Amino acid sequence: MTKIPINADISPRVGGQIAAVQRRTLAVLSVAQITSGVGVAVGFAFSSLVVARLSGSVSISGLAGTASVLGAALLALPTARAAGRSGRRTGLALAYGCALLGCLITVVAITVRSWPLMLAGLVLFGGASAGSLASRYSATDLSPPGHSARHLSWVVWASTIGSVAGPNLAEPADRLGRSLGLAPDTGPFALSLLAFAIALAVIVIGLRPDPLLLARSIAPASAPATTTPAPRARGTLRTAWQALRRAPAAVRALVAIAVSHTAMVSVMSMTPVHLDHGGSPNWVIGIVLSLHIAGMYVLSPLIGWLADRIGRVPVLRLGMGLLLAAAVLAGTAGPHGVTQVSAGLALLGAGWSCGLIAGSAMLSEAVPLEHRPAVQGLSDLLMNVCGATGAVAAGVIVGALSYSVLGTVVAVMVTITGAWLTLKRT
What we know:
Blueprint lengths: L11 H44 L2 H4 L1 H24 L1 H25 L2 H11 L1 H12 L9 H32 L7 H20 L4 H7 L15 H13 L2 H30 L4 H16 L2 H11 L1 H20 L6 H29 L5 H29 L2 H21 L3
Helix pairs in contact: 1-3, 1-5, 1-6, 1-7, 1-8, 3-4, 3-5, 3-6, 3-16, 4-5, 4-6, 4-8, 6-7, 6-16, 7-8, 7-12, 7-13, 7-15, 10-16, 11-12, 11-14, 11-15, 11-16, 11-17, 12-15, 13-14, 13-15, 14-15, 14-17, 16-17
């Protein structure tokens, strides 16, 4: 590929080269999303069950999902720091490398039947989620003005394939693992290990030139210098907060992302329990969750196009409206109201998608190029922390009160956020 000159005017020839690099970048990120999505879905679907078998405790089994979410949160800033210092390829390689190591530790833990070691492995396993979230931002580095949301949305959409296919591969992977002489229950995590290894190879080999480094090299000469290495993680966090103080639009985007994710995780995590109380079989609950996943991902290209066409804030407000409708529909449905809950969960996924795509595009555009990795890393950190907190709070609310009260709490939260976005719109 012809070398693109540093700080060059974006002539038609150079612009064409950048567009070609961006197309390659989107293809590479999408392939990595598909393969890593399989690994995440397989491991996540099987982890709680395996921890329960190893520990003999249903309560301890719940720590499996918490460990993965915690890992994604803990690795968000290191991934951002690595990207800020050496480019997106390095940051994503760190995230997927940690996930690969986590799978290896998990396989060993199951073999020696140690649930604490398995939980430690699942923390590193969360690196795959950190990488998946960071990939969406990698798609925006070279996006032309007015196209970042739709480019980002295509990478989000690629997650659909892995998320849908992954859980269905867990049982075949376990059977294959046993036939190959692996310990029982290790097959799914061996498959996850393979998936993460492929994703890592795709990123390391295919993400060239690095989109963030290329974007920095062609930035106008008048733009702030971007060659200074990123500081340590604490400095990365400080840099992110400083950048946010100077970018009100980024603050709005960050809040919208966090609220959307909290609302989605809160309702989604307790819906299987609610339906189980009504006697719904597992296959019915599975269909409801599949509709929810479809709502999260299938419409993402349309949402990305809409965010570019009518603006980020209108789509964020639309997302809050969809989340409100989801909370009302699901929250007012009884344990036997499967159809109503299904409609609510589909809207819940679509509202989350609006918040993630429009919010991520708005966040990226609102801060200078040199500060984007730090701010994006902070966004992913808060997103995971809010999701984990929302899941815990939802369990407490449903356990002490009811599923309908949870719907009311979520409805109030998204209504306040939607009103705030309307009053603070740019």
